[in-house]
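Curious: explain these tokens?
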Amino acid sequence: MIFSSPSFLWALGLLGIPIIIHLFQFRRYRQIKFSDISLLKQVQTQSHTQNQLKHLLILLMRVLTLALVVLAFAEPIIPASMSSDIDDSPVIPILIDNTLSMQNEVENSNLLKQAQQDAYQIIESYGNETKFQLLTHDLAPESRRVFDAQGIIKAIDQVEFTTKTLTPSELWKHHQSQKIEHDYTKSILYYLSDFNFLTDSLETVADSNTAIRLVQYRGDFNKNISIDSAWVSEPLIQVGVPFKLNLTISNHGKTLVQDQIIETSTPNQMLGSINLNLEANSSIDTHLILTFPEPRPYLVTISTDDVPISFDNEYYVAIKPKKDIRVAEIRGTSTKVKAFEKLFDDEGVAYQFFNEKSIIQDSLSETNLLILNDIEDWSSGLLSIIQNTLNEGYNVLITLPEGVTKTSQELISEEFKVDFKGWRNDTIDANELTTQDIVFDEVFESVPKDLNFPRVHGYHSVGGNQLEGLINLYNGDVLVSVIPSANGRLYIIPTSLDDANTNFRNHALFVPTVFNMALRSGVEQPLSYSTSTKVVSVNKIESEAPRLRHLTTDRTYNVGKAFRGISLSGLELLQGFYELGDADRESINLAFNLDRNESQLTNLSDQEIITMLQSASNDVQLYAAIEIETSSNLAMADMNTELWYWFILSAFILLMGETILIKLLKS
């Protein structure tokens, strides 16, 4: 047996105090005259001897009780046997949190560096025979090996920040799998972290053979500014047309931040900046007005200056403005309606029209709105053109004249699940708009109560489970409807737009409704993706082995093909701009940003941390970082048998015995 805190043994000198008190009990006696005590001498002698024995026994109990308490404070332990088989010794896994919140600083050093230094202290406190494992959030290959002391120190030297954030359950599952793989039972897991993303309790069965030692780091909680997202409200960004780039900015700190500068720039040009005041623990939405002069990709970086956590100081977006909106009309041979040609005769629109007998299909690629105007005789080829347009994510508008053939109705019905209920020669006003649909975006600030609706005189009554009315008639039929199909939308006007059948083409609703059909069309590439995104939708990837290249580092990734896109599963992407290369098409620029999970500064209490992890082990202890730095007895505390509580228990038993003896003596 040895003592962890031998400095307390000086208190054993206090054992002389009860002995001195016992030896020098100065009592004052009173003399009482008594006639004859000769008969009591024998009884007196026996009683005096018994009392002396009881007093000596009480003295012994008091001395032993005090001695046991002093020894308990000196922390007695039985050292682990150095001659035992090394396989019976516990393995020491060291889990170092290398997520981005560990960029936080205290005393001119980031938390990751402090955790590495403390890991060295932990290793140093164990013997040379001890086996170690290193666990990190990126689950590097080193996390599957068992090291000696020198080996794990070299592995810890190589630990860097990672963009991955594993949950406690995922980390615990990996630890348990390593115990099975390396065939060891006992372990003492050191978890060095700021516990910033510890939001859920660990749901598992307690492992009685694993002790958990938590080491918490607390950085600067006063300030962290993050740029969380960027988006545009406009459905189509056009060359030379100003648009709003909307931003969400957050202050995760405890204090007000004033005059925080947010800048936007491309690699070659500063685009603009704004100054913000941010309340503590708050987020705000703001915007900048930008204009792009050319129809090419613009790689825009939104940035701010903020320390110590800096991974969320930049947000990347890739924007490609279009020169014009592409509209193509296929016109029936018998129609004289040219309403669409007049509508799209605009500087920002590339309009073309074809007779139904002379369609050039190659010219219809990437058309925002394909219009089939008053075609009476439909074919499977025409349906194929419509489906291709919808599959590419663009919109289609068809008008159905009275003379559309029965066979054509059957083709349309089979392809798009539209029910034809017959032609009606009724004059009916519309009475209802589905104003929440995108075709009415920015048409009304508020719908007026006395709105003048369009009117029909003749139309096909159509229906279907997927058909949604946009402009509805008084009798429940529809004037304008939509069927969401593939990636695009199929709009139906069940009549010809001549004056004999409807006044819709001359109505105030016609221009914004149809123009929005073209404007809000196409599967636009999002401005950016998260680095944790698994699939990116990209049309027409022909190559079997597309490559993704990071433009700053020139690092390349081989990506897999997915349905209408590419698969990024298993890749640990850097944030920033990428080029998606495909030998059979023009390259695409993409922007990726890190998740902002680690931006939030969570300051959990000691008890909250222990509560969330105590289901994993019956032995969970929490240290402050300073305790690791100043302690040289970590291994002794974990690998040896502690006896202090047995000493306290023995002292309590002796104290109870002393109490009983005193009562007997008095009786």
